[in-house]
Amino acid sequence: MRAQSKERQLAEAFVTLADTMVDEYDVVDLLHTVVELCSSLLDATDAGILLPNTAGDLEVAASSSERSRLIGLLQLGEGEGPCVDAYRTGDLVTVDNIAATYARWPSFAIAAAESGYASMHAIPLRLRKETIGSLNLFRDRTGGFSADDAVTARALADGATIGILHERSLRESDIARSQLQHALDSRVIIEQAKGVIAHTQNVDMDDAFQLIRARARNTRTRLSEVARQIVEHPFDTAAAAPRSQH
């Protein structure tokens, strides 16, 4: 029964990903769907995605929690860590015990320990020979991922890659760059909106994002647009509250 349940969850996960890949799809929501699926389906505490901007510099494009976002930013700031290496080399980077990596990534090892992460799995987002980012899975305990979870994580990474580039991107490279830059640019306004909601509604940053996302989905509005409305009208707290469908 447990295996059947897992198989059903996986099938539903890929149906969810497929449903996002329609014309004018919201790439930001797609990326968050991927990291949330990783956290719920795999033996992972958190997940995050790093993508390069038009200048080639990596940025945090999506994260399942505030602490995974911060550990991603730390790696980018220091220029070191499994997430960065997976992108630069195009190879899988598995760390069964982060504490043992101090000699290789001292700043990352210290920050990860302070955040409570003990192991991780960094998967390059690759299409043929091109690496366009990395999908990163974090765990609160040491040890490697099971073979099944490793295969599933690779499949989700492939799904994310296909979703980012989409069929139009495969035919037109400038569309791919535009979509990636949109996702990265949107992060700025979304982070500002999270701060507004966290302050005005007295919730943490993770709950603030879920409120914003629920609003976007219920009104069929892009995440970045809902976030912009919140930032421009910070005292209208109802702007973040999800509306029920009738």
Could you give a quick summary of the protein structure above?
The chain is of the alpha+beta class.
Keywords:
alpha+beta; Beta-Lactamase; 9 helices; 5 strands
List the topology elements.
Elements: H1 2-20, H2 27-41, E1 46-52, E2 58-63, H3 66-78, H4 82-89, E3 93-95, H5 106-115, E4 119-127, E5 130-139, H6 147-171, H7 173-201, H8 205-219, H9 223-232
Antiparallel strand pairs: 1-2, 1-5, 3-4, 4-5
Helix pairs in contact: 1-2, 1-6, 2-6, 3-5, 6-7, 7-8, 7-9, 8-9
Task: Describe the fold and architecture.
- The structure is a single chain.
- This protein has 246 residues and is an alpha+beta fold.
- It has 2 domains: 2-170, 2-Layer Sandwich (Beta-Lactamase); 187-240, Orthogonal Bundle (Arc Repressor Mutant, subunit A), CATH 1.10.10.
- It has helices at residues 2-20, 27-41, 66-78, 82-89, 106-115, 147-171, 173-201, 205-219, 223-232; strands at residues 46-52, 58-63, 93-95, 119-127, 130-139.
- A 5-stranded antiparallel β-sheet has the order 2-1-5-4-3, with helices on both faces.
